[in-house]
Design goal:
SIR2/SIRT2 'Small Domain', binds 2'-O-acetyl adenosine-5-diphosphoribose, 241 residues, alpha/beta
Length: 241
């Protein structure tokens, strides 16, 4: 059996699968990845913008950067990788999709059990009282402020130096510990605590598969490493499920 055939077999027999996705999954939709050849970080330095101190000092610049990304993300659509994950979710009794992406494309494609580890770029909250806002922000009209406490409204995403939402992290860790099959998909597997999830799954007996365009620090630890585009490999696999 080829490695792809073994993976298909594992999916068919899985009772509980967890998938960790990263920016590579949205690359085919036209959203640049953070790292790698065409990485966003070559043009911008988000670590300078995506942190609470930067936001308090220069909220206008940080909001401008997020408004640009929101506009980009509003225009793009899910790709074959997102849709393949929807098909896989339908076949497996328990399935958890853990994503580091903040672009909402998994939900848009129809995935149901999605855990957003790094938040959602379309959501906003108060930087002081944390109250979420559903206001349709008109950023061109000036900086947005909280209706309740008057604090600045910020994007509801996890920034450098901030902790993940505890509920999301708990769900992700439980899924990793309980699954029999874990797939790391289109992520550089560098950013903690997400990067530890595949190891947690493996330590608890899961079969570990990775799909990426290039080797990552995780690749040598996997049971199967499939090199290539997520959208191509996964859409091929769904034909056999
Ligand atoms: P990265 O940009 O670090 O990694 C993207 C990975 O996707 C790379 O390993 C690429 O080789 C791979 N890749 C690119 N195109 C692909 C394709 N079509 N199919 C398969 N793989 C492909 O993105 P993440 O791992 O998601 O966090 O980055 C993790 C976190 O780092 C982000 O969520 C962000 C950043 O700091 C926060 O902003 C908190």
């Amino acid at each position: 059996m080829t490695e792809i055939q073994i993976f298909i077999d594992k999916i068919k027999n899985s009772q509980n699968m967890a998938v960790l996705t990263g920016a590579g999954v949205s690359a085919a939709s036209g959203i640049p990845t953070f790292r790698g050849q065409a990485g966003l970080w070559k043009k911008y330095r988000p670590e300078e913008l995506a942190n609470p101190q930067a936001f308090r000092s220069h909220p206008d610049i940080v909001w401008e950067w997020y408004a640009w990304r929101r506009d980009l993300i509003r225009k793009v659509k899910p790709n074959l990788a997102h849709y393949a994950l929807v098909e896989i979710e339908k076949k497996i009794p328990a399935f958890t999709l853990i994503t580091q992406n903040i672009d909402n494309l998994h939900q848009l494609s129809g995935s149901v059990n999605v855990v957003e580890l790094h938040g959602n770029i379309m959501k906003s909250k108060c930087i002081d009282c944390n109250l979420p806002t559903s206001d349709n922000l008109n950023l061109k009209a000036g900086l947005p402020y909280c209706r309740s406490c008057g604090g600045l409204i910020r994007p509801d995403v996890v920034w450098f130096g901030e902790s993940l939402q505890i509920d999301a992290l708990n769900k992700a860790q439980t899924a990793a510990m309980e699954c029999d099959l874990f797939l790391s998909l289109g992520t550089s597997a560098l950013v903690e605590p997400a990067a530890s999830l595949p190891y947690l799954a493996k330590a608890n007996g899961a079969f570990l598969v990775e799909i990426n365009m290039e080797e990552t620090p995780l690749s040598s630890q996997t049971d199967i490493f499939l090199i290539g585009q997520a959208e191509k490999i996964l859409s091929e696999i769904t034909h056999y499920l």
